TrEMBL record:
Domain Orc1-like AAA ATPase: 13-90
Family, per entry: Belongs to the ORC5 family.
Gene Ontology process terms (BP): DNA replication initiation
Signal peptide bounds: none
GO cellular component, one term: nuclear origin of replication recognition complex
Name assigned to this protein: Origin recognition complex subunit 5
Highest rank taxon of the organism: Eukaryota
Source organism per UniProt: Culex pipiens (House mosquito)
């Protein structure tokens, strides 16, 4: 078992099966899957585990975590992905515009 799995499992007890599955998808040197959809009951740690897991991987691959509920149109989905990958944050200085609109 990899050190990443041990570190995240210690931080999130009783989630070892999910963490091992994530490691199978992302951690063994194979190319990343184009998309991963995590689903389950609310407040069970899905996003927290993923946000802790991805930065620990030895990879130069960019990634974005987003909510499928918040991205209810294709435009919002793609703008959110673009903003997250580039680090753009809509704020008062840019009139709350996404990077695609700037």
């Amino acid at each position: 078992m990899d050190k990443v799995v041990q570190v995240i499992s210690a931080k999130y007890p009783c989630r070892k099966a999910l963490i091992q599955k994530l490691y199978q998808l992302f951690g063994d040197g194979d190319p990343f899957p184009p998309a991963v959809y995590l689903y389950g009951h609310t407040s069970t740690g899905k996003s927290s585990i993923l946000q802790a897991f991805l930065p620990l991987l030895d990879s130069s691959t960019s990634w974005a975590i987003l909510s499928a509920i918040e991205c209810y149109t294709n435009k919002i989905l793609f703008e959110t992905i673009l903003n997250r990958l580039t680090g753009h944050v809509p704020c008062a200085a840019n009139r709350y515009a996404s990077l695609a609109s700037v």
